[in-house]
């Protein structure tokens, strides 16, 4: 694989979309469906052609029996939640807010991307939790249950024009493509009518969203009704992120699947990608730090995992542990927490390694660390802003950090030996780190008053 394969694929993908006018292809019901599935298809092409798989959860033989009472409780919770929803809808709300609470702060779960904004809007806001079931807010069990049914009932043999084009261009499996596209279309319809019903009942002034650009149906429902939608940046967004990166030579005015506004973490991100929404820099206190020179009292290096990168980073962790005299934290992504025991077993013989889930925040980890190691992560930018060196393993989609390749504090490495040689290098504070800005509360209040 070429190290710049992601760059080549992105350009080829953009050209393909434009040549065959994919954003204007409709299904039999008049739905423009390419924007609903392009992200999943891009990921599928990239993974297949780079021969890497998502780490699957490891289960014991009695797993299914242990899960039965859990699923039963979920069904009970679903009915309870829908009754609670009826009571919620009797209240007059000014806003709807979708959050994804993946972190713990002061003993409570919270959403780091939207916390600043929610603190201002909360008394007038109907909150939908999309990530953590252990919430005092409304959790959409009913929607998720419907999605599970449609995944099993998708018409995998139903052909569509886009599948034919993709098979020809990228040599993909047609049956798998049809299944993927048809599932996304059916999921869209389920989500669309679910959210449209809630929006009509609440009639909010605006809808705020923290999700990875995947709420296409919600955006469409709100746009059709005439309600403003605002999404928050919560991670890397650049021209290699297929959920936010679009070809600026294509017209998207006929689509209703984009938010009206996208709030950015700083000016740094504004020109990194083209996205057919209005971009506004609002900042975020959960990412921003005024202290760029934290004191490192211990010799600690943190390795930032993610589900896609587990096997490569596990291998590197074991190699690095054998030569590193300091201590190593392995920070798991929230979507890996259920796999913690598997990863612990893999590193159990390494005495200087500890697995971290949500017991320490990213900010606390960085303040303890002299360096981080990863392949791709937003934490890279948080580390640099806090004066922490970064080692990028030259694997998979590391090229998403192309904008940092010339940064003197970022080291592109092939193996653990290269880390050992450079781990003691001093941090260069001459660079201007502007990845994050402080939350601009005055600007936000002005924005909501003018909606």
Name the descriptors.
Rossmann fold; alpha/beta; six-stranded parallel β-sheet
Describe the structure.
- By secondary structure, this protein is of the alpha/beta class.
- It folds into two domains: 304 residues, no CATH class; 123 residues, 3-Layer(aba) Sandwich (Rossmann fold).
- 39% of the residues lie in helices and 13% in strands.
- A six-stranded parallel sheet has the order 4-1-5-6-7-8, covered by helices on one side.
- Strand 9, helix 9 and strand 10 form a beta-alpha-beta unit.
- Helix 5 runs antiparallel to helix 7 and helix 6 crosses helix 7.
- The relative contact order is 0.11.
Quick description:
The chain has helices spanning 5-19, 34-50, 63-88, 115-121, 141-153, 161-170, 174-202, 216-225, 310-323, 340-346, 362-368, 379-385, 416-422, 441-449; strands at residues 95-99, 103-105, 108-110, 125-129, 206-209, 228-232, 261-264, 278-281, 300-304, 327-331, 353-356, 371-374, 389-393, 410-413. By secondary structure, the chain is α/β, with parallel strands linked by helices. The strands form three sheets. The protein has a six-stranded parallel β-sheet with strand order 4-1-5-6-7-8, covered by helices on one side.
């Amino acid at each position: 694989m070429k190290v710049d394969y992601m760059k080549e694929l992105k350009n080829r993908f953009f050209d393909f979309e434009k040549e065959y006018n994919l954003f204007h292809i409709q299904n039999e019901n008049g739905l423009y469906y390419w924007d609903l599935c392009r992200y999943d298809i891009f990921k599928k092409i990239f993974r297949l052609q780079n021969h890497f798989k998502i780490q699957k959860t490891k289960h014991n033989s009695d797993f299914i029996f242990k899960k039965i009472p859990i699923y039963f409780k979920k069904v009970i919770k679903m009915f309870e939640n829908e009754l609670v929803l009826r009571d919620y809808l009797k209240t007059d709300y000014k806003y709807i807010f979708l959050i994804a609470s993946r972190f713990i702060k002061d003993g409570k779960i919270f959403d780091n991307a939207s916390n600043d904004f929610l603190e201002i809007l909360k008394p007038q806001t109907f909150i939908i939790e999309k990530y953590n079931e252990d919430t005092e807010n409304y959790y959409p069990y009913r929607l998720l249950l419907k999605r599970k049914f449609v995944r099993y009932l998708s018409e995998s043999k139903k052909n569509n024009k886009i599948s034919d084009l993709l098979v020809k261009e990228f040599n993909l499996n047609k049956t798998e493509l049809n299944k993927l596209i048809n599932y996304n279309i059916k999921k869209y319809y389920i989500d669309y009518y679910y959210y449209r019903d809630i929006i009509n009942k609440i009639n909010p002034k605006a809808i705020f969203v923290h999700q990875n650009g995947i709420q296409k149906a919600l955006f469409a429902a709100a746009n059709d009704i005439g309600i403003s939608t605002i999404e928050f940046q919560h991670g890397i967004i650049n021209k290699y992120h297929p959920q936010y990166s679009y070809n600026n030579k294509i017209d998207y005015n006929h689509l209703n699947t984009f938010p009206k506004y996208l709030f950015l973490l700083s000016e740094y991100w504004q020109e990194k990608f083209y996205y057919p929404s209005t971009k506004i820099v609002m900042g975020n206190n959960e990412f921003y730090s005024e202290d760029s020179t934290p004191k490192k009292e211990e010799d600690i290096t943190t390795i930032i995992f993610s589900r896609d990168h587990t096997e490569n980073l596990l291998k590197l962790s074991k190699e690095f542990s054998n030569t590193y005299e300091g201590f190593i934290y392995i920070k798991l992504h929230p979507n890996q927490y259920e796999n913690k025991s598997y990863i612990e077993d893999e590193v159990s013989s390494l005495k200087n390694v500890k697995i971290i889930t949500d017991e320490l925040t990213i900010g606390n980890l960085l303040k303890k660390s002299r360096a981080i190691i990863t392949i791709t992560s937003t934490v890279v930018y948080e580390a640099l802003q806090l004066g922490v060196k970064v080692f990028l393993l030259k694997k998979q989609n590391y090229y998403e950090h192309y904008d940092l390749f010339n940064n003197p504090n970022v080291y592109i490495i092939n193996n653990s030996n290269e880390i050992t040689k450079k781990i003691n290098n001093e941090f260069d504070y001459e660079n201007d780190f502007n990845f994050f800005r402080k939350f601009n509360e005055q600007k936000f209040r002005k924005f909501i008053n003018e909606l």
